[in-house]
Every structure is written in structure tokens, then in C-alpha cells.
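Below is how a single chain appears once it has passed through the pipeline. First comes the sequence as given, then the structure the pipeline wrote out for it. We keep one example in the README because the format questions we get most often are answered faster by looking than by reading.
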Amino acid sequence: MEINTTIDGANATIAIVGNLTVVTAPKLEAAFAALPGDASDLVLDLSNLDYVASAGLRVVVSQAKSMQRKGGSMRITNPNDEVMEVFDVTGLVDILEIER
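Resulting structure:
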């Protein structure tokens, strides 16, 4: 998995390429942890995410809650059909902001 982070003031974008699994989830956690403290608007770009496992979902939900607690927001953008199905089946479409 590859992670690309772009920061523009309080706006941050993290783009994931590949598979988000139990093995790669810690890398995403580290990318979230490396965000500046004043980052208040986070976009998680899933355009090139091929697969997401439950460990990856845990990291995503945890970050969304963290952003909310500090008064910020996190949007998920461009999930493919397979990844969107995982969000749908798990009910996460009801609690996460997802833009297709």
C-alpha cells in the first residue's frame, strides 16, 4: 500500500493506493498521526484503493471520530464499487461522509 499526503493550511488529503489490510492499517494510522494538529478538514481519497479489510475500517472510523472530537471533519471520496459495498454492508455509510 502507498499513502500520499497533501497539506494545504488546515486542509489535508490522504490518498491510498493498493489494499488496506491488517498488515497495512498501521501505515495509515501513522499517516493520520503525522497530520498537523491544526488540520481540521481531512479528505480520504480512495480513488486507487482496491480493497479494505475490517482492520482498515477500524482505522478510518477512529480517525473520523478523532476529527469530529476536535471540531473538524473527514470526507471519504471516490471509493470504487467493491470498497463502497464494504461501507454499505457494515453500515458505515450511515456514519461516515462518503462522496462517490
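The chain is about 35% helix and 35% strand.

See the next section for the split statistics.
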